[in-house]
Automatic annotation (TrEMBL):
The lineage of its organism: Bacteria, Pseudomonadati, Myxococcota, Polyangia, Polyangiales. This is VOC domain-containing protein. Residues 3-107 form the VOC domain. It comes from Labilithrix luteola.
Length: 118
């Protein structure tokens, strides 16, 4: 049946943002033709939150140490927002070369990707 998810990020500078995923995050990719790079993502989770509106979706990447990630991005000249401590995780927003923001957080919640206690 379903074997994966395909996420689309819209960008004012898609080429620069593709280079970020390729060169800064070092994500494996395939060239779908004409420079359209499709990147492999780490394992994912889906959460369904209540809302007054439909068709609003968000993408966050997860990391083990958001403070270390912010330092690593700073060393590569990539801007990050201050870390925001929430009950569910510690989050920053990375500014992509195309100007968009991408949330990255260190989860504090249980995850189906990790056994309890790890």
């Amino acid at each position: 049946m379903i074997h994966g998810a395909h996420v689309i990020l819209y960008s004012k500078d898609a080429e620069a943002d593709r280079a970020f995923f390729r060169d800064v995050l070092s994500y494996p990719f395939a060239d779908a033709g004409h420079g359209w790079l499709i990147f492999a993502l780490p394992p994912a989770e889906v959460a369904v939150h209540p809302s007054d509106a439909n068709d609003t979706h968000e993408l966050y990447l997860m990391c083990d140490d958001v403070h270390a990630l912010v330092e690593q991005m700073k060393g590569k000249g990539i801007a990050c927002s201050p870390i925001d401590e929430q009950r569910w995780g510690s989050i920053t927003r990375v500014t992509l070369p195309g100007g968009g923001k991408l949330g990255i957080y260190q989860p504090k919640h249980a995850s189906p990707l990790r056994p309890a206690g790890s």
